[in-house]
Fold this protein.
Amino acid sequence: MNGLIAKALGFAAILIVATIVVVKKMNIDLSDPINIITVIGAIVIAGLTAGVSAKYISQMKSDTASGELADENWDGIGEYKNELPSGWAYSYLGTMIWALWYWTLGYPVNSFSQIGQWNEEVKAYNKKFESIHKNADKATLTAMGESIFLVQCAPCHGNTGDGLSGKAQDFTAGRLSKEQVLYVIKNGSNQLGYQMGAMPPMMAQGKDAEDIATYIANGMKGEQPAAFAACASCHGPDGTGMNGMAPNLKINDDTLVEHVIKHGKKGIIGRMPAFNDRMTPVQIKALATYIRTLRGE
Amino acid sequence: MFHWLEKNPFFFAVGVFLVISFAGLIEILPNFAEASRPVVGLKPYTVLELAGREVYKKDNCIACHSQLIRPFKAETDRYGQYSLSGEYAYDRPFLWGSKRTGPDLHRVGNYRTTDWHENHMWDPPSVVPGSIMPAYKHMFTNVADIETAYAEAVTVKNVFHTPYGDEFKGTRAAWEAHKPKVLADAKKIAADMKNKDVKEAVEAGKVPEIVALIAYLNRLK
């Protein structure tokens, strides 16, 4: 054992002792595999550093120049002819073969598609999402609906769903205001794609229309005005829309939210754009559930 | 064997460049030619939309808003369908942007309306609480330069063969003939707005910047 190796061993020992001291001082938990791997890594690096340094330093001390000089000579500085390292040569040949494959088949036939990746990712995610939330309870749906509402709906309907002082439908008030009902009675409606089809304008007039509007705006409580018969033929005697054949006049039910999301709506307040294909059926259901909670339903 | 190359560094550099660019050329050029064609159904910007685009550039919307939806689920959930190259075929220049201090706007026409934009440009926090976007009230009084926008349309028609109709010509008479169409478009936008000054200006045959900008934003679908 010569002096150099002894020095290297000493250096490695210092590094290892320092590592152990740090581990002890900082109370590092060695039962955690990440920590133990890190410590082993530190010790190995210390050993390798010392060993490799010792090897090259001793080689530098004893090595002499040998080999054949290349023809080129720059101001007296020459270069030895070195054999191509075989590993390098084989990988170079391998790259050439790979390049041939890549040119002819790899790129044209087999190329990566970001859109394809997106398609697969979204398909897999939606499938998983729908199966997880197939029978979601009300709390889950409400939480999900709230997050969707804050991203997609809040810019117009407001963070609390209050419609930002009349800029959009107010979900915290009744299902329909008196003005909204009168507007629809006057103009009719054929926007939401319900099975019942278009609602013709002027189904009721004058005091009849006023009575109907007041009744609906009050949440359909109290005595039903006689004129409501005109509405009942499509919206049902109780105004709930005959199980999704026509819009529900009482609450924002799942069907109503689904139809508005799909078709958008232009009414007395303004136009709401359609959000078609932006949400899955479960998400629309969640949104409807959340919108109903805004009014404590 | 190749010592002569090492002795001629200039030609060596040219050779290296050719070899390296060859791979790039065969991969990039065919895709580029394919992707730069307009997608089916894409129409060139109307003159009013072009004027709005100029407002968008002038007020530097691009500094905070991008117009490029990447094919990541998180982005398509929020902004809609990912963007395709062919959708930018008539964008000169494209306004992709590189920073999103605000949201992406490439499909903003799908989910915002004229009156929303009106409220928002007048006072952003009134519709988006906590928004750091500044108000752009000057757009309600500044008048958009529809004449230059028309000139731009004629230029891209002549230079790049953008499919505007034959009636787009670089003459005063052609512009006077086209102007009523621009004003009619502006009236349609103004009809959905509440600001009285804007409505009066449009009635008087002027196009406030906000009208042109909203026409442009509604077009982004």
Notes: Chain A has eleven helices and four strands. Chain A has a mean pLDDT of 88.
